[in-house]
Amino acid sequence: MSLLPLKGLAGINLKPQHYDEALNLIDSSYWFEFHTENFFVGGGPRLDYLQQVAQRFPISLHGVGASLGNVFDNFSEHLREVRKLVKQFNPALVSEHATWSAHQESYFADLLPLPKTDQALQQLCDGIDRYQNAIERPILIENPSNYLDFVSELDEPDFLMEAVKRTGCGLLVDVNNLYISHRNCGLNIQDYFSRIDPSVVGEIHIAGFSQDEQFADALLIDSHGAAVDDQVWHYLSLSLKHFGPVPVLLERDDNIPSFNELRSERDIAQALLNSFRT
Amino acid sequence: MDTLADYFDSFSLYLKTGSDTHIRKFLEGNRNTQFMSIYRNGFLKSCLSALKANFPSVVNLLGENYFTQIAKKYIVDFPPRQATLVGYGDTFVTFLAKMEPDLPYLKDFALLDLTWLASLNSEESKVWDLLKVNDMISQEVDLSLVPVSLVSSAYLIEVDYDLLDMWLLLKKEKRLNEAIRLSQEKQHIMLWRCSGEIRARVLKKLDLVLLEHLEEGANLEEVTLQALQIEKNFDISDYFSELLQNRLLTLVS
Description:
The complex is a heterodimer. By secondary structure, chain A is α/β, with parallel strands linked by helices.
C-alpha cells in the first residue's frame, strides 16, 4: 500500500453534528477521519452515516483504543471489530497510536505514555504486528503528547523509527503533540523532524491545545478543544517542508465550532499543502 | 528499570486510586510530579463524558453536579472493560440501585437510557414488510405457519414505576416544569428502532404475551392461540398489520 493515498489533501475529523453538512459538500478535495472505536456497533444511524460519507469521500479510520503498547484481555475481539470496519469501508488510511490505554481488564480511555525502552518497543511492535496482520495492511502510528518524562533508553524519534523498521508501519506525525511536548518537556521539534525518514510519514495531524486549569501555561494539554495555534501552523509549515505534501488532518473533539469554521481552518492547511506541491 | 509490567501496574494503580507512590520511580527529570494528575483527569473526564451521553435522563434527573459525583465513583469501581465507550455503563443500573436506595426509580430511568442505546446500535434485521408478505401470498405460502421473530432492535423490559412518559421528557429536557410524580406500578415497555429512530411504548398484558412469544420465534398461529386464551375476540390480522407497519418482524431462517 502506498502511504500517500491522499497526498496533498487536507481533511477534518468528522463529528456527528456535522454529518449532514459534510454530505452536502460539493468540494471533492475533502477527506474525513473517524475514530474507529465509535463504530463498534452492530448497526443503526452511526454506521449508516459512515457508509454515506465513505461513498462520497475518502475516509481514514483512526483508532484510539487498541492500546498497542500493552495489549489487553479483549484485544482479539477488538481486532475483529477493526477488521470488519476496514473490510466494509476500505479506508484510505488506517492509524493508531504509539501509546497504551488498557491494562489487564481495565480500559483507561486515554493515550498513555510508554517508557522508551527496548522492552516497551518490542511490546509495541508486537501490538502493531498483530493489528496489521488482522487487517492485512500497514497502519500509521502517531507520536504521543508528552506531559512528563518517563524513564527511557531511546529518544522518541529513534523509538518510533525503530518501530517502523521492525513492523513496516508508517508514521502519523502529530504536530500539535510535538508542540505540546516541546513546551511541556523541552522536546526539540526541528531535531525531531531531522531524525524521521520522510518516506515513512503518511499523515500529519494538527489541532488546538489548552492550558491546564491548575498549572496554566506550565502544562499544555492536547485537548483538541480550540483553534490551531499560530505556533502549530508554523511547525506544520516546517513539517511539510521536511516531509513533503503528505495528507493533513485537522482534529477537533471538544468545544466543537460550526462546520464552516472548521472548513476555514482546514482550508488554511490546504493552502499550505498547495504551496508545497511539486 | 523495573519490569514493564511493574510500570503498567504502577500507572494503573495511580489512575484508579490517585496514589503516585509506585509510579514516581519511573519518572525522570525535575518536572512537577503533580503533572501526573493530567492522566487521571483525562481518564475520568473521558469516562464521565461517555456516561453523561449514555444516561441523559439520569443526568437531568440528578443534575450535572450530583451525577458527576456518583459517576466518578462508578468509573473508579467499574472502569470500562472494552476499548470503546459507546456502550459504557452496562452495570451502572445496578450500581445506582445500590448507591441510591432513597431514589428507587433511578435504576429504571437508567435501564431505559441503556436500552435506548442498545436498540439504537443494534444489528440490522431483515424486516418482514408488506412487500415481502404480498410476495409470499402470491406464492400461496400459509403465513400463519411461517416462523417469525422480533427484529434485533426490539427490547422488552420491565420497570417498577410507571415512568415512560417522564423518561421521554427527561431524556430531552434539562429541567422539568412539574414535580416528578411516579406510581410504584410495574410497566412493561418495548423499545425498537424504526427508520433510524427509537420508538417506545407501554405494553398491555396481551401485547407482552404475544411479543414474548414472537421474540422466541413462534409462528402466527401459535401466537393467535396464546392470544385467544387472554382475549376471546382477538383478531390477529389487525395485530399483524400493526407489527408490519412498525417494522417489528423478521423471518426466522
